[in-house]
């Protein structure tokens, strides 16, 4: 079957590699999405195991539409009782990039109207709509005049791992946190530190990677479990195979934060992620932290702009660079920031760069190699 995995801008290549690793075929990279083919097992594994996917869609119809009548009629040509049972609730969302349609909510509404009108004609009753917890979720995507109707196999967005119940201001998205770790050169065998850990997203994602635990919990419910043709035996096989790969943590994964509420949030989320006792968190000022040993891997999401006034940004990033140069020799440090100018104030030359988005904001992800003593010239 054809499938589409949605992701964040800049993570498409990482997602494609993940798909290769779970047996997907005919992989085609798009913009914030990767198209591929696979059987039910691949689809089930996609939802459980892909760390950089936001949701997994299964296209069921494509047609052209330039107005609401074309859209309504095109949707109505789908035999919806192949996918929806009597008594099941539905929800529709949409994404549009078109000169012919300019309101995604209206597109979703017209799609819903067409579906329920058809099923009312067939059944004599309309299916109920449940925006929050629908049994069957439908996605309408319009690019120019090309419409794709898909079933959403995931349900709740896959970035919601279920562990982040406590959050600080502007926490990093879990899919982005996992994607940054996978973009970096972290080998999952090197001690990892996050000295500005916030609510602990990097720590939780890194620990689950290091022990081969999938990004999702095993008891999570997915929309595909409500589909006609759902195979419980295949799902049980996917879960059993995944559990067999989980191993003990044999490296140090540790976070620090100056704010006690952030420390508390991290510890709470770590426990919810099933990682209690595996990941350490301490209250500590980054600029007084001398506990990161040489040879470690460090990842930092500085609290730029949101928790700091603009007047303090210049001095703050200069201090980060000075501390790294003086107190973190022999480490590899990756920093993400949406304040592009502030990154230049570190006074360090990055050895690798990635352009990404952190939420709606463009961001840079830079690698800094801090050598012991002076760097030897080749």
Automatic annotation (TrEMBL):
SUPFAM superfamilies: S-adenosyl-L-methionine-dependent methyltransferases. It comes from the Bacteria. The keyword RNA-binding applies. Residues 42-153 form the THUMP domain. Keywords: Methyltransferase, RNA-binding, Transferase. InterPro entries: DNA_methylase_N6_adenine_CS, RlmKL-like_Mtase, RlmL_1st, SAM-dependent_MTases_sf, THUMP_dom. It holds the Pfam family THUMP. Gene3D superfamilies: 3.30.2130.30, Vaccinia Virus protein VP39. One of its GO terms (molecular function) is rRNA (guanine-N2-)-methyltransferase activity. This is RNA methyltransferase. It comes from Portibacter lacus. The lineage of its organism: Bacteria, Pseudomonadati, Bacteroidota, Saprospiria, Saprospirales.
């Amino acid at each position: 079957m054809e499938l589409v995995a949605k992701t964040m801008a800049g993570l498409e290549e990482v997602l494609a590699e993940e798909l290769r690793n779970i047996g997907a075929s005919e992989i085609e990279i798009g913009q914030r999405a990767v198209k591929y083919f696979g059987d039910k097992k691949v689809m089930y594994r996609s939802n459980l195991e892909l760390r950089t996917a936001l949701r997994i869609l299964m296209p069921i119809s494509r047609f052209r539409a330039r107005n609401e009548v074309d859209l309504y009629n095109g949707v109505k040509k789908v035999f919806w009782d192949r996918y929806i049972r009597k008594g099941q609730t539905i929800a529709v969302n949409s994404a549009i990039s078109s000169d012919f349609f300019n309101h995604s909510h209206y597109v979703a509404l017209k799609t819903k109207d067409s579906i329920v009108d058809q099923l009312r004609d067939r059944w004599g009753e309309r299916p109920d709509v449940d925006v929050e917890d629908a049994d069957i979720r439908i996605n309408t995507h319009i690019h120019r005049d090309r419409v794709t109707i898909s079933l959403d196999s995931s349900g709740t967005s896959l970035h919601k791992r279920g562990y982040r119940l406590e959050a600080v201001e502007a926490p990093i998205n879990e899919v982005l946190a996992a994607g940054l770790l996978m973009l970096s050169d972290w080998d999952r065998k090197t001690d990892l530190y996050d000295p500005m850990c916030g609510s602990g997203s990097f720590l939780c994602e890194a620990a689950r990677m290091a022990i081969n635990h999938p990004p999702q919990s095993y008891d999570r419910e997915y929309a595909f479990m409500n589909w006609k043709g759902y195979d419980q035996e295949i799902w049980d096989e996917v879960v059993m195979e995944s559990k067999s790969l989980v191993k003990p943590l044999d490296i140090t994964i540790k976070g620090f934060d100056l704010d006690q509420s952030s420390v508390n949030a991290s510890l709470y989320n770590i426990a919810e992620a099933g990682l209690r006792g595996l990941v350490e968190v301490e209250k500590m000022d980054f600029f007084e932290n001398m506990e990161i040993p040489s040879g470690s891997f460090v990842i930092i999401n500085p609290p730029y702009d949101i928790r700091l006034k603009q007047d303090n940004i210049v001095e703050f990033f200069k201090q980060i660079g000075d501390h790294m140069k003086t107190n973190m020799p022999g480490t590899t440090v990756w920093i993400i920031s949406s304040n592009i100018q502030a990154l230049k104030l570190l006074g360090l030359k990055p050895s690798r760069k990635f352009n990404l988005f952190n939420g709606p904001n463009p961001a840079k992800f830079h690698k800094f190699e801090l050598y012991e003593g002076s760097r030897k010239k080749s």
